[in-house]
Amino acid sequence: MKRLKYRALIESMTVEEKASLMSGANFWNTKAIDRVKIPSIMLTDGPHGLRKQGGKADHLGLNKSLPATCFPTAATLANSWDRQLIYEVGQTIGKEAASEKVSVLLGPGLNIKRNPLCGRNFEYFSEDPYLTGELASEMVKGIQVNGISACPKHFAVNSQEHMRMTIDEVVDERSLRELYLEGFRRVVEKGQPKTIMTSYNKVNGTFANENNDLLQDILYGEWDFNGVVVTDWGGNNDRVAGLKAGNQLEMPSTNGITDQEIVQAIKNNELDEEVLDDAVDRLLGLVFTTQLHDQDTPRIDYEEHHKKAIEAAKRSIVLLKNDDKILPLKHGNKVAIIGDFASNPRYQGAGSSLINPAKLSNACDVLGQSGLSIVGYAKGFKRMGGKNDRLLKEAVTLAQKADTILLFLGLDEGSEAEGVDRVNLSLRDNQLELLRSLTEVNSNIVVILAGGGAIEMPFIKNVKAIVHTYLSGQGSAEALKSVLLGEYNPSGKLSETFPIKYSDVSSAPYYPGKEATAEHIEGIFIGYRYFDTVNKPVLFPFGYGLSYTTFAYTDLTVNQHQVSFTITNTGAVAGEEVAQLYIQKQDSSIFRAKRELKGFEKVSLEPGESKRVTMILEERDFSYYNPTIHDWAVEPGAYDIQIGSSIQSILLQERVMLTGDSVSCEHTKDQFPHYFSGHVHEVTAAEYKGLLGYEPPSPYWDPKQDLGLNDTIAQAKYKNALGKTIYHIVLFFNKFFEAVNKPLLANNVYFVLNMPFRQIDRFTGGKISRKQILKVLKWINR
Predict the structure, then answer these.
(1) How far is residue 270's CA from residue 256's CA, in Å, rounded to a whole number?
(2) Given its phi and psi angles, is residue 73 left (phi above 0), alpha (psi -120 to 50 degrees) or beta?
(3) From residue 363, how far is each of 310, 475, 479, 480 by CA, in Å?
(4) Contact 413, 744 (CB under 8 A)
(5) Which of 138, 287, 520, 626 could bridge to 86 as Cys pair (CB 3.0-4.6 Å)?
(6) 302-314 and 83-99 are packed helices; what angle lies between their axes, rounded to 10 degrees?
(7) Residue 157 burial (10 A CB sphere; 0-12, 13-18, 19+)
(8) What is the DSSP string of 60-118?
(9) 168 pLDDT band (50/70/90 cuts)?
């Protein structure tokens, strides 16, 4: 019998009471059992700031939350490559959560950026699992120092928003381990989170929250996770199967519907009561160690936290181009500020991460008070798209009066959000038209971009400078002012690759899949692992970012355990450099990326100053996952240890020899020619089948099959008149809200299209009953 920490308490409870703890009391709280003195605790959103709703609760941000400090999103913070900074951001967010008696903060998000169109990429750190795992671990540590729990999410392979509640992510074992699970492994082992949230999707045919391979074998078994697994909100499929796999807490409340399923399964001998007892024991451990009393809640200085938000934004802004050293701005230059984002900032994402900022300024006001010679502001374009000749003309007229134009462009709130993927990598046509018109009257244009990720830049040769703020939180305007004026030397480096055009992306032909499945045909070749391996030109490479100073790298010493080198600031101003360590295997007998990130350090240097940097290497840094033996292995031979300022700027290199392991991988060049070359756009069906080890399931829904509880409203378009009507009504409201410039509402309606019928009774707390849903399905299936 398994040793339970709270055995005596558990034995004093009825089966019904124990089962009741396995789902929420409401949208954000666990259930209390007063009879045995078990309190309720609160879980709430918080990837880049506390989102505790003050009124009626909802998951997608329809109702306003309490004021909190809005920090840069994970995609932004990742560009800092700064472990200590991200720890401090986590610590600050966790402190605000503790002040509101929130026991579990639902974040950080650390899914891998398989494709730049993913609508939720702004919440995720990187395309690289090493960088993701290192940074997310620091955020977890920072949050949990406050005595509460972080909740890394979404475990696992949540690579898209398209059909996210039903899609089957079909991915081979090696790619799963090396890319999609590795960041989570680092977080579990280094950050030791007390909770983890499962994803909505299936992984290789089984829903993530009831996937024994992911939960029992890997999370609990290999990684020795000792915390609680919680579903994403509405992410439960089969409650008993989930409990058996190791998913303790289902959220939100289902008004006891799924609790009864657990009780009935025990009565029918379909579930061992010891499984329930173990789940209750884990949950009680979370409840009793994160319960917050009045004396535990800290006081918050929001002004001090705003300063921290500014600092985080400053260190995360990336300078992408700076021709003729147009930046920092010269004193006395006449400056025109153009673009809607200057006065109405885009500083955060949308959906469950929508923060109500405690304080917020805009670039127009901040720059206007900076001492710059501002000749005026022009809106320039309609934010949500559409032609407006008056706005365009006003901007062009203003541009003629200025020496330098600060042009604020970016992605609007409807372009990227939870629940919907991006349509393309382009800015809106009216923004591009404005830029073209401005170049005809003024060549000194500094483009300032806002948005959660990569965009195409057909204009890059026509502007002098490009500054990418990403989504920098409530301190974005002050941070940008510091960078533009040279008060702070930009130090951000891209944590993802910017392609020249979307079709260059390795997963572009396969993303986001069809209807039923998302096939990861590109395998391990995502992001720089693809571009670098096949020498595909990019707009900006992984790890790239400019500075107002220069750095020199010298004196590399290497062995298989430790790497040391010296960095010197050779310029005239203080700055910070992100040194990156990559490992490249020579003459590999397996297919693999040309090189992979395995270390980094951010170093601050005064002019002329030098510092010695040391990085430690572990065996895992040289390993690949061998699907033949279902374990990690080190290939024997030569490995080049490379130090650079980006993946395309390797400045130092030394070789080490490893004896490695005797085991070999069965994948041969004859069998997998396109994986060995990296040209994954050309992978054949036979190669992909061989990589998976089985015939992939059909990517399409079967329109002849009756709809069931696991099917979606979107599938009703294939059924009778009632089904088609329901589908088109929902679609109508989606298009209507888009037309009236309500992007958040439009995206939330689109979310409903992808919701399985099984979630309707659970999301409505039984107001729409399972019996009523089954009746509607019966009518649709006639």
Answers:
(1) 19
(2) beta
(3) 13, 10, 9, 8
(4) yes
(5) 138
(6) 150
(7) buried
(8) SS-SPBPEE--PPPHHHHGGG--HHHHHHHHHHHHHHHHHTT--EEE--B----SSTT-
(9) very high
- The whole model's pTM is what? 0.96
Residue with tokens 């009045």: 294
Instruction: Specify the pLDDT at position 61.
Output: 47
Q: What is the mean pLDDT of residues 595-622?
A: 98
Q: State residue 730's pLDDT score.
A: 87
Cβ-based neighbour number of residue 741 at 10 Å? 16
The stretch 78-102 carries a mean pLDDT of 97
Tokens of 170: 């079909």
Backbone angles phi, psi at 254, to 5 degrees: -120, 20
Average pLDDT on 701-711 reads 90
Structure tokens that stand for 293 in this block: 């009393």
Here the tokens at position 497 are 């690759």
What residues are paired with 562 via a beta bridge? 616
Which among 603, 596, 617, 607 is positioned nearest to 566, based on CA atoms? 603
Which token pair is 183? 């960041």
* Sequence-distant (≥ 6) Cβ neighbours of residue 120 within 8 angstroms: 109, 111, 158, 161, 349, 351, 416, 417, 418
**CA angle at 545 for the pair 133 and 46, rounded to the nearest 5°:** 40
Residues taking part in catalysis:
232
**Dihedral (Cα; 640, 646, 647, 650), 10-degree rounding:** -40
pLDDT digits (tens, 9 = 90+) for 21-39: 999 999 999 999 999 999 9
- The two structure tokens encoding residue 225: 């996770």
Q: What is the pLDDT of residue 353?
A: 82
DSSP character string of 119-162: TTGGGS--S-HHHHHHHHHHHHHHHHTTTSEE--B-BTT---ST
Sheet arrangement for strand 168-170: 206-207, 202-203, 168-170, 517-519
Which residues are bridge partners to 597 per DSSP? 582
Degrees to nearest 5, angle at CA 539 with 76 and 682: 105
The whole-angstrom separation of Cα 240 and Cα 237 is 9
Q: Which residues contact 685 (CB under 8 A, 6 or more apart)?
A: none
- Beta-strand runs (E) in 647-698: 649-658
First to last CA, the chain: 51
Query: Helices marked H in 327-470 — which ranges?
Result: 340-343, 363-368, 389-399, 429-439
How confident is the model over 389-393, as a mean pLDDT? 97
The model's pLDDT over 627-678, given as tens digits with 9 standing for 90+, comes to 999 999 999 999 999 999 999 999 999 999 999 988 888 888 999 999 999 9
